Amino acid sequence: xxxxxxxxxxxxxxxxxxxxxxxxGVLEPLRVRTTQATSGEQALKCLLREDFAxxxxxxxxxxxxxxxxxxxxxQRARHRDTPxxxxxxxHQDESSIIRGYVEGAVDYLTxxxxxxxxxxxxxxxxxxxxxxxELKERAARLREAQAELLAREHAALLEAAVQRARLHSVxxxxxxxxxxxxxxxxxxxxxxxxxLRLVGRRDILxxxxxxxxxxxxxxxxxxxxxxxFRTGEPVAGKAIPIxxxxxxRRETAFxxxxxxxxxxxxxxxxxxxxxxxxxxxxxxxxxxxxxLSASLQRQHEALQKSExxxxxxxxxxxxxxxxxxxxxxxxxxxxxxxxFTGQTREKxxxxxxxxxxxxxxEDRARTVRRWVEALxxxxxxxxxxxxxxxxxxYRHMSARGVPVVTEDGQVREWVGLHIDVxxxxxxxxxxxxxxxxxxxxxxxxxxxxxxxxVARLVVPTLADWCAVDLLTPDGxxxxxAAAHREPEKVALVHEVLxxxxxxxxxxxxxxxxxxxxxxxWMPTVPESFFDAxxxxxxxxxxxxxxxxxxxxxVPLLSRGRIFGALTLVYAEGDREYEEWELxxxxxxxxxxxxxxDNARLFRExxxxxxxxxxxxxxxxxxxxxxxxPLRLKLHSLRRSARSPGVKLDGEALLAHLDxxxxxxxxxxxxxxxxxxxxxxxxxxxxxxxxxxxxAEVVREVVGRFEPQATKAGxxxxxxxxxxxxxxxxxxRLDQVVTxxxxxxxxxxxxKPVELxxxxxxxHALLLVHDQGIGIDPGNLSRIFERFERAVSExxxxxxxxxxxxxxTIVQALGGTIEARSTPGEGSTFIVTLPGVYxxxxxxxxAS
Length: 847
Ligand code: ADP
What we know:
Blueprint: E1 9-13, H1 17-27, E2 33-37, H2 40-49, E3 52-58, H3 66-75, E4 84-88, H4 94-102, E5 107-110, H5 115-173, E6 177-182, E7 187-191, H6 193-199, H7 209-212, H8 221-231, E8 235-243, E9 252-263, E10 269-278, H9 280-316, E11 319-325, H10 335-341, H11 345-348, H12 361-377, E12 381-388, E13 394-405, E14 411-420, H13 422-443, H14 447-461, E15 465-471, E16 477-484, H15 490-498, H16 510-516, E17 520-522, H17 527-533, H18 537-546, E18 550-558, E19 561-570, H19 579-642, H20 650-681, E20 690-693, H21 694-704, H22 706-712, E21 716-719, E22 725-728, H23 730-747, E23 753-760, E24 763-770, H24 802-812, E25 816-822, E26 826-833, E27 836-838
Parallel strand pairs: 1-2, 1-3, 3-4, 4-5, 21-23
Antiparallel strand pairs: 6-7, 6-10, 8-9, 9-10, 11-14, 12-13, 13-14, 15-16, 15-19, 17-18, 18-19, 20-22, 22-27, 23-24, 24-26, 25-26
Helix pairs in contact: 2-3, 13-14, 13-19, 14-19, 15-18, 19-20, 20-24, 21-23, 23-24
Bound molecules: adenosine-5'-diphosphate.
C-alpha cells in the first residue's frame, strides 16, 4: 500500500510576527504547509518534531540570531542537509553573507526581495525535498523487500536442509531398500543401508550397476533398468525371483520392486530411484501355505472318500432292528428305522401300521398279509419288500421277525431285522437280464430282428420306452428297433426321430453320443429340455406323449467303431436312472454291438462268398466256351488224320488251325484278365513307360480285330487325323483299346462303332462310341467295379473284369475313364490321358 505523506512543510523563523505573516503571504500561492517560529530556540524545537523542506530564517533576531540558529541546525545530523534561506531586513555587509553561507545557509536574501525569487527557491527546495523523501522511502521499501526475501531464502534453505536431513533419515531408516542410480549406465549415487545389506556389498557407490553386480547379469534386471531409463515409464514387479550372489545367500530371493524414473526440472531423464522390498519370507510362507492347503485338500478328499466308503459300507450292511409288543404294535422307538426312512418318531409310533407308509405301495398288501399271519401263528415273519429311504428312493429289503417267548410260552414281544439287499438283487437282476439278452443276441444273425428283441427285453425292466439307432453307410441314422410299455406308442418312438434334426455338433443328446462314443445320463430331465431339445412343436408334443423324465443313451461300439446308440427312457417321474442302470445299459450295448458287428461281418462275408461263387461259375463257363470248339476242332483233325481216305490239303488244315488259334487266344485273354486282376489285387501292376502314339495303337487294335468286327456285323471307323504322342505303356494302352472295342462289338448290336483320338488341353482323348444296347444310368459307375455287370449272363458272356482292368490301367497312367449312355441308343466311353507332348491341332470329334 503506498504510504500517504504529508505535503512538506516550510519553517518560517522571524522574531517579527508581521514578517512571518508577510512571508506566509508570499508563499501562499505555493500551497505549502508552513510552521512559524519566532525565535531560534523555537525553530530548533520545531525541528525536533518534524523535518522541513526548507527553513527560511531571519538573520537578525534578538538573542540567538539567524546565523547561530543555522549553525546549531547544521550540527544536527538529521538536518545537516535541510536547506536554509537566510533573510536579512536590510542590506548586510558581504561578511555577514559569507558568514551565512559558512553557517550552512544555501541562500541569502536581503529585503526587500522579489517574492517571485523566494517562491522559486522555495518551490525548488520543496520539490527537492519531496524527491528526496520519495527516494528515501523507495530505498526503505527496497531494503524492506530485500530483507524479506533474504529472510524467506533463509527459511527455505533451512527447510530444505531439514527436509534433506529428514529424507536422508527416512531413506536410511526405511524398511525398504532404496538406491539412486544416475545416468544411462545407472551409476550408484546413493544406497541406503538396507540396500547395501541386501546386495551384500558396500563398494557400489559411484559404480555402474552392471559393474557392481556382474552376478545378476542375465536375470533381466539391467534390461529393465535400461527400459525405464529409455522410456521414462516406471516399472513395478511383484515377487520377482532374483539370484543374488551375496554372501550366505545362495538361494533365490523374491522381491517386490519399483523402478521410478527421475527427471530434472527441465524434464530430462536423470536417473532412477530403485525401491525394493524383499518378500522371500512371504513367498516361502505362501508356497508353504499353498502346499499345506493342497495337502489339507488331499487329506480332506481322502477323508471324504473313506467316509463315503464307510457310508456305502454302512448302507450295504445297513441293518434295521425293530421291536413290537406281543400284538405287533410298535411301542418302542427304532432309531435305525427312523434314520433309514426319515420317518418322524410320532409317525413311526403311530398305532399299529405307522411304518407301512414306508413300504412300496405294490408290496404293502403282501407284507401286511404275512405279518398278520405270523402274528396269528406265532411263527417267523419273513418277507422281501421295497422300503422308501429318507431320500425318497426305494431299497429292496429282506425283513425277518421272530416272536420272543416267555417261559410260560407267551409271546412277550417281536424282534425284527431289516437287511438292505438292493445291491444283491440288482446284480442278480443285471446278471439274469444280461443272460437273457446274450441268449437273445446269439439266437440269430439277422441283427435287425435281434435288436428288435433286445428292445422288447429292455422294456419294461430297464425302460418305459427305448430305441436302437444305427448309422447308415451314407452318414444318416436309422431307427432299427423301438419298444414302448404301451405298444400303441411304438410308432411314436419311430416318428420322434423323423422330427429330430440331426445336428452332429450338438453338445448333448444322441448326436453327441454318436460323435464321441461317450454315454449320456440324465437322471432327471428338466421341463426346459422339451423345448430346448425339440425341433418343433410337434416334436415337443410327441415327447410329452411318449413321456421323458429320465434317460440314458449309450453308444454301440465294436472294434473301436461307433455304429449306433441305444436310448433308454423312463417316462414317468417315479423312476430315475441310477449308475448301476447306466453300467448295465453299457454292458448290454456292448454285447448288442458285437452281435450287430458279427452279423454284419457275416452278411458281408456271405455276400463276398456269393460273389466269388457266381464269379467262379461264370469264369468256368467262360473258360469252357472256347475250349469246346477247340476240342471239336482237334477231334475232327485227328479223325481226318486217321481215316485213310481223307487227305487234308494245306488250306483246309490252316483254316482248322485258325479256328483253334482263335480259341486259344480267347482263352489266354481270359486267363490274362484273371492274372491282371490278381496282380491289381496284390498291387503289382507294373508299367513300362515309353513313347507311344495313341492313334497308331488304336489303328493297330482295330486292324487286329477286323475279323471280330465282321463277325459282329459292326462297321468300325477311326478318326485320328494325326499322331497323339505321349509317354505311356504301349501294351497296357493296347489292352484298354482292346477291352473297349470288344465291348463295343459285344454290346453294339451289330451297329457301327466309331473310335476317335484327339488332344484337348494337353490331354489325349480317346472316345469309343457304339449304337448298341446302352447302359442304364444307375449302372454307369458300377460297371467299372470288379465283377460288376449290367447285363444278364444268359444273354451276354463275360467276367465283369474288362472295365475294372481298363479303369485301373487308365488311372495308373494318370488318366480318367467315364461312360455316357442313353439306354437303347448306345454308349460312349471317354478316356483322357495326361502327358501329351506332341499334339496336332485337331478338330474335336463330335461326341
Ligand atoms: P463283361 O463285358 O465281361 O461283362 P466288362 O467289365 O467289360 O465286363 O463290362 C462290365 C459291364 O459293363 C458289362 O457286363 C456290361 O453290362 C457293361 N458294358 C460294358 N461296355 C458296354 C457297352 N459298350 N455297351 C453297353 N454295356 C456295356
